[in-house]
Amino acid sequence: MKLVGFIGWSDSGKTTVIEGLVKELRGRGYRVAVLKHCPHGFDWDKKGTDSARIWAAGAQGVALVGPDQVAFLERVAEVNLKQIAELYFPDYDFVLIEGGKEAVGFKKIMVTKEELPQDLPVSSGELLA
Questions:
Q1: Stated pTM of the model
Q2: pLDDT tens digits along 74-112
Q3: Which partner for 38 in 42, 82, 111, 124 could form a disulfide, CB atoms 3.0-4.6 Å apart?
Q4: How do beta strands 2-7 and 107-110 pair?
Q5: Fold of 2-39+77-110
Q6: Spatial separation of the C-alpha atoms in residues 81 and 112, rounded to whole Å
């Protein structure tokens, strides 16, 4: 599995870059997964649905299983993006991570609409481009 992070500030174009890369890699026959880092949280289910009620009741893990998709939500004490990729996507050719500037253990590509900033949010050893 090749693990590559795409970092940048909000509205820098990370999602657009990843979207295009997913289409290109899939077109070449690769299995591709994407991890989206959401440091401010996210809404994963609509309020009032059974799964949202179960999560709100304190379940430590919930899986939504449909005819052609599965979604997992698990409460964790610590987030390690590399471990999550290895656990949930071990058989994929590429796992692209959107965000996670401070995360460690994988190479990153800085996405920016401006000139590359002097104070990069990652160590130069982790930065591919």
A1: 0.81
A2: 888 888 899 999 999 999 999 999 988 888 889 888 888
A3: 42
A4: parallel
A5: Rossmann fold (3.40.50)
A6: 22
Q: Is the pLDDT of residue 32 over 90?
A: yes
Tell me how far apart the 2 most distant CA atoms of the chain are, in Å.
48
Is-contact 111 8, C-beta < 8 A?
yes
Identify whether the C-beta of residue 70 lies closer than 8 Å to the C-beta of residue 89: no
Distances 95 to 71, 88, 98, 105 between C-alpha atoms, Å = 16, 10, 10, 13
CA dist., res. 7 & res. 101, Å (int): 6
Q: What is the 3-state secondary structure (H, E, C) of 26-48?
A: HHCCCCEEEEECCCCCCCCCCCC
The 3-state DSSP class for residue 108 equals strand
Give the torsion sign (CA, 25, 17, 129, 122).
Answer: negative
Q: What is the C-alpha separation between 77 and 45, in angstroms, rounded?
A: 21
DSSP 38-101: -TT----S-TTSHHHHHHHTT-SEEEEE-SS-EEEEE--SS--HHHHHHHH-TT-SEEEEE--T
